[in-house]
Amino acid sequence: MFARTARRQLQSSTGLSCLARSFSSTAPVRADFTHVIIGGGVVGLSIARALASHNAAHNPSNTTLLLERHPHLGTETSSRNSEVIHGGLYYGPTSLKTRLCVAGREQLYAFCKAHAVPHRKTGKWVVAQDASQLESLHQIHETCARELVGVVPTRFVGKEEARRLEPGVRAHAGVLESPETGIVDSHALMVALRGLFEDEGGVVAVNSNVVGIEALRSSSPTSSNSNSNSSNPGSAGYRLTVRDSSTGEASSITTSTLINSAGLGAFAINNLILPPERHVRAYFAKGNYFSYAASAPRVSRLVYPVTPPGAGGLGTHLTLDMAGRVRFGPDVEWVTSPADLAVSAARLPAAIAEIRKYLPGIDVEALAPDYAGIRPKLRPAGAVGDGGKDKGKGDKGDKGGSGFVDFYIRKEDGYEGFVNLLGIESPGLTSCLAIGALVRDMLVGSARVEGSARL
Q: What share of the chain has pLDDT > 70, as a percent?
């Protein structure tokens, strides 16, 4: 099998240049790979695994390649986040984010249990400090009860119960609980996904930076893409120029179908393929995290503030890792470069002020800058919807409320075999398995995406 040959070549190299040498026996009219996924984060891995699993069961001659520009998989957004399995509270009942979050949440819990990936269903409290914030909690609760009944459970926690369970947490006006929220070891998750992908014959090539893409057109009704009956771009597949990040050596490969799941680099990949009028601009929301070294106050669940309208994130919240250690973040700092990963220590005083609103007994001397992550955004807009009450009145692609921007997951019009994923931020980790299944079905089935953001 071609994939096995390629994997043997990869054992002696981390880049793609060795792979290219194995292509010399491939006929020019046949693409080197059936599927190429650009981007080795948790979403790219999930897509790759879903396609490879389908191929192994139904089309064993098909091949799948996962390209990652860094020396290791998942070193960007996938490993620089809160590692939260979200319940699905925030994004509006009709949004793609909510649908994929809810489906992905259940799939992720089952996957972690089946493959021994460390995780825990901790539950989450969203805490209100005044009447206005309490009204926001009631809106969330009512939307979940009315339009997401049975799939996004919530309940209000009484004052006495809250005081007994979390005496260190302040919630002057009320507490809304999300019992389905949890945490996961994102690194162990990616290791498991990679293992399954490679077991199904998939190939991983790290240090492989895509620097050029040509959408090939068919000159006849028959092309390397068996699903194509037109001369549209991509009807004969795609030619990728890939540069080895460690040596600078360039290679050329071809693929029948192409998936852009490059995360922070997805905007650049989009602009390599699509014409100038369909280019997109990237917006980067940096989130700073702060570690906490003290043992008190002790908290056993996640604690979130009520998200202010129009905020680019969910607020500086309290999360836990699998060892029970507390950390706070992320805040929102708009930056121009996705490489700006230095923790902004100057933002600690503002973070302390926010944390003290719900955890007044915090020992500020035990807080320290920890790490930062970057969220890829289609617009500098809000992270949450408004429960759908203003559906259709916000920005284009808005399915949750004014300012809200949904995931962009589309099989691009006029381009054969090209699936484009942009703005895959939170809840991308929670949704990863559902996204993988959706993209698989878009390529090998008849799935369509309703509600995806519009550019």
A: 84
